[in-house]
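Recall that a protein's primary structure is simply its ordered list of amino acids. Everything else, from secondary elements to tertiary packing, is in principle encoded there. The following example makes that idea concrete.
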Amino acid sequence: MSVTRLLAVASKEILQILRDSRSLIIVLIMPVILVLLFGYGVSLDLKHLPIYVYDRDGSQQSQDLLKRFQASDYFEIVHVANSYAELPRALDNGDAKMAVVIPWDFSNRLHDGRPVQVQALVDATDDNTANVLIGYAQAVVQGYSSDIQVDWLRDRGQLAGVTPLRVQTRTWYNEDLESSAFIVPGVLALVMSVIGAFLTSLTIAREWERGTIEQLVSTPVTPLEIMFGKLVPYFVYTRSSRCRWFCRASLGFCRRGITFPCSKRFF
């Protein structure tokens, strides 16, 4: 393999990219569109999920529990059902991801200090979403149950038991738990890796369409040198673009309080 012939083919490809506006648009615009489309268009965040509620008790206590669901960022009460039959119909039609049923003796049991069960019907078509919904619902109910227990003991002049061990969680590097914070860097690396191979195959197909591949074959340039010569410009471009995008992403994350161990090498 001759380095001189390899660089000659690479120089020819660079001139071809600069002369052909369509290739230049593909090289410059396509990575940006793909990163925006797959990085920000696809979201794994489960927030404001529609739920139906059926309050058979209608008391102040049951309304307080429903307000806990409404105050959460993960749930949004879209309809208050008047009958139990509306709940399965809403889940079948996809109008709701979960339905909450409060029993008729909810407030009476809480007043007497007896345990009470709240029913949650979850659409398990997507098992991952269903498991997340169940976890969020249990967290809301457990938080409400703890407050009710403390109030019940305080009203009767009893001291509420202090939990000897308590876990306080704090998220670092992604305080809002946004999926785009870890999707965008991965998509960026994937897009910039694929775009080089895609553009190289596109240039080979363009040579066949224009009939210039016969001219390249008639020259002393070997097929391996043609392939690598056409690959070098896009390889350099994808590498430089990846570093440039990574530096911009690191700067944006550092402004948001998200730091990278390797950020010291770039700044």
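The chain has ten helices and four strands. The first helix runs from residue 3 to 19.
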